[in-house]
Amino acid sequence: MLTWLLSSWYQPSSQPPSSPSEEILCDTTQHPILSSLRELVESGGGEWPPRATYRDTWPIELRVYDSVWREMEPLFPARESSTDNAHNRQLINAFRNHMQALLDERINMRNVQSALDRAASDPQSCSQGAWLGIWLCISMLRHAYRWGVSPIVSEAQNEETLDLPEQLNVPWRCLQKHFGTTSPGGCMTSLMYANLRADDRLEYSVNIGMPETHQSTEYWNTKLICSMEERTLTMYHLFARTIAFLDSGDLTSATATLKSANEVLKTAFKHFFATLVDSNLVQSVWLAYVQGYQGWTLEGIDGISGGQSLLFRTLDAFLGIRPFPTSEKESLHLPTQQRAWLNFLRDYDIRAKVKENTSDEAQEALTTELEGLVKQLRLWRMGHMRRMQPYESVRRPERKTMTAGISVVDAENENLMIEHLKKELGRRLAETI
Ligand code: HEM
């Protein structure tokens, strides 16, 4: 399906694979699950987690969006927030007017349209990495326009609809088509995976000019999400190979492969809890200066949730943890190749297959490993529920209580918000069986 991508950048080499992504691309196992995994890696520009490329690699007519963002970037954050709605309305309008004026002045829509048409029809003119970088840039512009000021304020949360500038809508429609997503706002792939550079810095920030704690919390937030993918890509490969072994009747190799997957997951979860600590993600800073702008909350559509991270969707899909999201809901924020990978795992339904198709002894060994993964996922869900509480209970009077992923809650106080979130997360924990 994505052979055009492969031809533009990937040259098979005689050297041994140097990374988990390359190992997947070099794996010649003939099985549709391996093809699906290869397409996932290709959709990330040849790496998973994705490797976006920035301004200088984009079609020349689109680079002006980067210039507009660079000019708006330092104007978005405010060190102190106000609870005065009229004052906040002025701030939001001034920011939006400024961005609109820059877009009007700098962007030639005819040039943009023709660059986008060229990129869509001729992959040589725009690599997948460049598409990802452009997606990041337009997502940042759209989220900044949507909120007008960071930390976000209730004056903007009260808006239910919003007309965005045409200069941001035209590329957005092409990006939606290219990536297969339907949300008008950004998602984990566009705003987080695409924002971590190869040299381990963020390309764009919503904390320019803010104290070091704000900037490092923003960095660690994205870093943790990306490093969880980095650390579990090998596990995705092991899942795919387990399925291929099962289908070829090699149950011993399938069991050994699942055992290794359990080990990979254990190490990754240790990393999660060692990293999600106040010295990296500062509790007093995270909610207002990092999480806020990632929300969307217009026309009933949400922004980023940790629930969009591919790792947890992969675990739920592989282990058959139900209910599965509807395809309509999943298409909002997950690109085509991520959904295809997940749907393959769901349809395969490994736990049912092992139960129905294997003899007693093999079944026991395979089930032990599968249940080991479920147990780890349950423990992670318990730990995540505890860890999120100090972050979500910070008092921010300028805004209504909200998570970026499940919208404005408008609880009367922070304790009620935490109770609400515990119920939401507790439901998924109870389903993890
Ligand atoms: C400061 C750090 C974090 C906080 C405060 C936090 C908080 C939350 C909250 C409140 C929810 C439920 C509402 C929503 O979806 O927006 C949630 C969901 C979720 N978060 Fe986090 N989160 C954090 C970091 C992460 C990270 C780094 C990951 C993954 C690497 C993650 C993965 C998830 C998942 C998978 C869900 C969906 C619920 C589930 O599957 O159990 N979270 N998070």
TrEMBL record:
GO terms for cellular component: cytoplasm. The keyword Metal-binding applies. Coiled coil: none annotated. The keyword Iron applies. One of its GO terms (biological process) is 'de novo' NAD+ biosynthetic process from L-tryptophan. Heme b binds at H384. One of its GO terms (molecular function) is heme binding. Keywords: Heme, Iron, Metal-binding. InterPro entries: Indolamine_dOase, Trp/Indoleamine_2_3_dOase-like. It holds the Pfam family IDO. It comes from the Eukaryota. Belongs to the indoleamine 2,3-dioxygenase family. This is Indoleamine 2,3-dioxygenase. It comes from Mycena indigotica.
